[in-house]
Specification:
globular; alpha/beta; 9 helices; 10 strands; 10-stranded mixed β-sheet; 2 domains; 38% helix; Spore Coat Polysaccharide Biosynthesis Protein SpsA, Chain A
Length: 308
């Protein structure tokens, strides 16, 4: 484990996952190069892209470490591969479709320095293509009836209304800093999700160990939003459906879990099926039902789907 004696500027491992989108990843690296915090190691995990991005990325940032996976490990698996290689006292997992701002790293590290119970910290998010508009200033709790939740401040103009450090329910998967100390106690991100909801589940794992999730308003990250999966892709429909149910199965005790399953079966399934039919979105309809069928094939309380 690296020394934490350099309190003023601890080593921070920045980890991002690339999948067939090296141009966006290059823009992220350029933004990292503009900030004044330099005690960083930058790791790019390439999730089996069609073309090897190593040369292009190292041309922009010679010190970047590119780890090539021979298969697509998904969001959690890709990040876990980077986590295993990281040497930092703190690890900042960040989407490749984001851009850094000055003071981002310092603000996140400050929370760990001042709050011993901090396990994960996320910055404020603004939409990159809508300057001054908030995407994330914390998360509301996942609703036990619907399995859905919402981001605090989403789509609001930023007038400083969320400029206070606060504990929140979940970190934003697009940018979350973890302390190595907490990570070694909690463990890696659950890979059963592959894409979507894994950061919520991981936050629940941290909370069960007594750690808090924090939102740091002093740190700002710009997000280009859904550059990899697309804003309305069948892949997104499949994993959001599958993992919404999976999260509830893993994290909600009876009888609340049964109430969710009844609501999903008798309200959500008929409603979404009708909507996809009326919109003639056959591909999304198939993806939605495939997400449900995954659970019918995993009815037993296996290690992957049982309540943690």
């Amino acid at each position: 484990m690296p020394s934490t004696s350099n309190i003023a500027a601890p080593l921070v491992s920045v980890i991002t996952v690339n999948y067939n989108n090296s141009r966006v990843t290059e823009e992220l690296l350029v933004s990292i190069g503009r900030i004044s915090y330099t005690h960083l190691e930058v790791i790019v995990v390439d999730n089996a892209s069609a073309e090897d991005p190593t040369a292009a990325l190292q041309a922009l940032m010679p010190t970047v470490r590119v780890i090539r996976s021979d298969k697509n490990l998904g969001f959690a698996g890709g990040n876990n591969l980077g986590i295993k290689a990281a040497k930092g006292d703190f690890l900042f997992l960040v989407n490749n479709d984001t851009e850094f701002t000055e003071g981002l790293i310092e603000g996140l590290v400050e929370v760990f320095r001042e709050h011993a119970d901090a396990g994960v910290v996320s910055p404020k998010f603004h939409y990159f293509f809508h300057p001054g508009t908030i995407e994330y200033a914390g998360y509301n709790e996942v609703d036990r009836l619907t399995g859905r939740n919402s981001m605090v401040g989403c789509h609001e103009p930023d007038n400083g209304q969320y400029d206070q450090l606060s504990a929140t329910n979940y970190a934003h998967g697009g940018g979350m800093m973890i302390s190595r100390r907490a990570l070694e106690e909690v463990g890696l991100m659950p890979e059963v999700y592959f894409l979507y909801y894994e950061e919520f589940d991981w936050c629940e794992m941290f909370k069960r160990k007594g750690y808090k999730i924090y939102y740091q308003y002093k740190s700002l990250l710009y997000h280009k939003e859904s550059m990899t999966t697309g804003k309305n892709s069948p892949l997104k429909t499949y994993y959001l459906t599958r993992n919404r149910i999976l999260f509830m199965r893993r994290n909600v005790q009876l009888p609340s879990r049964m109430v969710f399953l009844l609501n999903f079966s008798f309200f959500t399934i008929p409603k979404n099926t009708l909507v996809f039919i009326l919109k003639r979105e056959k591909v999304h309809l198939k993806a939605f039902w495939n997400g449900i069928f995954w659970h019918l094939r995993h009815l037993k309380n296996s290690k992957e789907v049982c309540v943690a």
